[in-house]
Amino acid sequence: MPARLMAIEGFISGQTFFVPDDEPLRIGRMPDAEIPIMEQSMSRNHCEVFRKGNAYMLLDQGSSNGTFVNDKRTETCVLKSGDEVRTGSIKFVFAIDEEAAKEIPTKLILVPEAEEKGSKDRQFEAEKSGRKDSALIQLLEPLRQQRIPNASPEAKTIAEPKDVPETIKPKTVAQGSSPALERIRPEQEKKEAAKKGTHPVIEAGVPTISEPRKRPAPPSKRHFVSRCPNCTKPIYQDEMDSGQCKTLEAKLHCPGCTECIELVGKDFGDYHVFGLLSISSIGAIYRAQHIETDHPVALKIMTREAAKGEDAVLRYIRQAKVGKEIDHPNIAAIYDLGAFEGKPFIVIQFIAGQSLMSMIHQKGKLTQKEAAAFVWPIADGLYHAHERDIIIRDFRPHLIKISQKSVPILTDLGLAKSISDPGSQLTGQHQRVGKPGYLAPEQIRTEKKLDHRVDIYALGATLYHAVTGRPPFVGETAREIMQKTLGDPAPNPTEFNTGLSDDFVLAIATAMAKKPEERFISAKQFGAVLKHFA
User: Fold this and answer.
1) Which pTM value belongs to this model?
2) What's the whole-number average pLDDT of the chain?
3) Residue 268, pLDDT above cutoff 70
4) 187 Cβ neighbours under 8 A, 6+ residues apart
5) For residues 406 and 241, what is the distance between their CA atoms, to the nearest angstrom?
6) Predicted local confidence at residue 53, as pLDDT
7) Cα angle at 435 between 430 and 439, to 5 degrees?
8) Which of these, 103, 94, 7, 12, lies nearest to 57 by C-alpha position?
9) pLDDT given for residue 62 in this prediction
């Protein structure tokens, strides 16, 4: 596939999208677009890039905010290599392979504005003579000419004429000598002549013309199909053809997520896997059962690809180590850690029930009393962890499970760490962990020293979400959400739930204070306040 769009600005910067030969490359807010850009400034079907004959065309689909090529709003045009295409906040550079560029007809090559005068005449002459007069070809032309390394000023290169037999090629001659071409002797004859010192070029003391260096073969181009609905990784045609991708709930998943799906219904070590609870970018959590004891558990298993990363495996080990230090009824217990068939896994307490997030979706929002009853026990569990110098760092309604007996339990300690253990510093200095919308401002700023107050903030944001039905800060992108977290106050929760008391709103605001020193002193203090509302 010769043409591609390379994102150079925006949240997908660094990604490359190839233009199919037989169908358009769609850009827009449609989930099934080849390049989905979920921004308010984008139309659902914003624009398309497609091949027409040997040319590549861009067609704006009547978008509200327009498609820009080289900073000019464009409805339709022929794309040239090096053109910059902007849609919304994303800027692409269009590139086309050199071999494909040679095949593009001259009449489809756009003439720069600086050469507008007389351009029609030159274009007509180019079509008439069959010459391709593009800026790219003119730029590359000097590189195609063969040059003599380290040649003396008296030497010059005789250009090779067209239609010369293969047995004839140009040679370097001294100034003033005959430019006649000499027949190249067979290979064996040349070797024998060289041994005897009778090679004509060697005798003349003129450097020989070396064979042009062969360029490495370009990397094989992959046909982009779509993105995984779970982890957003790109899915390519060769992965589909080889059976690495499979469909779950009518949606095509990437090889990593497919690997997770295929484990359902099979034995994994000492456990039998019954169902899939969730999938992440590095693995999945399953509902399973110990084969011998029939004890129900949750299995957290890494994919083979994720297990190649040393830091990811160390985090798994750290999670198991940290989890075993916590023994609290409102935090899921960790039973075991191991590896099977090259995949690390953790055995966690299984909680039958629904997540707090599912309950919010069902009801729209919780009452003040319901939310307080579910959140204060979690605050008590956090205090238990904080006493052991353990902070959770990743906290949101999705990670709180409500058991069948209405007991709230924190289920995932994937990013938990011991702040007193130097060996737990696996995250880089400027590396951010957690989910935007629940991150404390100091987490967003990637400050070195974080303490238990980041969990108090996240618990306050979770409580806000529970009683309003929405996170404290929302936006089109993670960047926008984090910018609001740093600079804007959260909307008053009474705007979304008029049944909240002033004291309850004050408790949320205290937990979510921008400055850590203005928050509750401890999770125990926060939980004690909430217990009055339960």
Assistant:
1) 0.54
2) 75
3) yes
4) none
5) 47
6) 81
7) 70
8) 94
9) 84
Q: In a 10 Å sphere around its CB, with 0-12 CB exposed, 13-18 middle and 19+ buried, how is residue 435 labelled?
A: middle
Lowest mean pLDDT: which of 66-70, 196-200, 247-251, 470-474?
Answer: 196-200
Euclidean distance between CA atoms 60 and 411, whole angstroms = 47
**CB burial of residue 221 (10 Å; 0-12, 13-18, 19+):** middle
Q: Could you give the angle at the alpha carbon of 204 between the alpha carbons of 201 and 206, nearest 5°? A: 70
Q: What is the mean pLDDT of residues 341-368?
A: 90
Q: Which helix (H) or strand (E) holds 392?
A: none
CA–CA gap between residue 205 and residue 203 (Å, rounded): 5
Measured CA angle at 278 (ends 512, 407), to 5 deg: 55
Tokens found for residue 282: 């590095």
Mention every residue, 6+ apart, whose C-beta is less than 8 A from residue 89. 9, 10, 11, 39, 41
Residue 55 has pLDDT above 80, yes or no: yes
Helix, strand or coil for residue 91? strand
Question: CA–CA distance from 345 to each of 298, 332, 389, 522 (Å)?
Answer: 10, 16, 25, 33
From the list 458, 343, 366, 465, the residue with the least C-alpha distance to 412 is 458
Neighbours of 521 (CB within 10 A): 11
Cα distance between residue 416 and residue 458, in whole Å: 13
For the chain, first and last CA: distance in Å? 62
Please report, for residues 65, 233, 446, the alpha-carbon distance to residue 12 in angstroms, rounded to integers and kept in the order given.
Answer: 19, 12, 22
Angle, CA 404 vertex, CA 402 and CA 408 arms, to 5°:
25
pLDDT of amino acid 58: 92
Between CA 8 and CA 433 the distance in angstroms is 25
Element holding 184 (H helix, E strand): none
Q: Percent of the chain having pLDDT more than 90? A: 26
Convert 34-83 into a string of H (helix), E (strand) and C (coil). CEECCCCCCCCCCEEEEEECCEEEEEECCCCCCEEECCEEECEEECCCCC
The Cα–Cα gap between 69 and 77 comes to 9
Q: Which residue has the higher pLDDT, 249 or 26?
A: 26
Structure tokens at 508: 């949320």
- The token pair that represents 39 in the structure block: 């921004």
| Whole-number Cα distances in Å, 220 to 6, 28, 223, 266 | 16, 27, 10, 36
Tokens in use for 360?
Answer: 């919010």
> d(Cα 412, Cα 334) in Å, to the nearest integer?
10
Chain center to CA of 428: 19
260, 291, 407, 528 from 404: Cα distances, Å: 27, 24, 7, 24
Q: Per the structure block, which two tokens stand in for 304?
A: 């083979």
Q: What percent of the chain has pLDDT over 70?
A: 71
| Coil vs helix vs strand at 361 | helix
Decide the pairing of beta strands 334-340 and 296-302.
Answer: unpaired
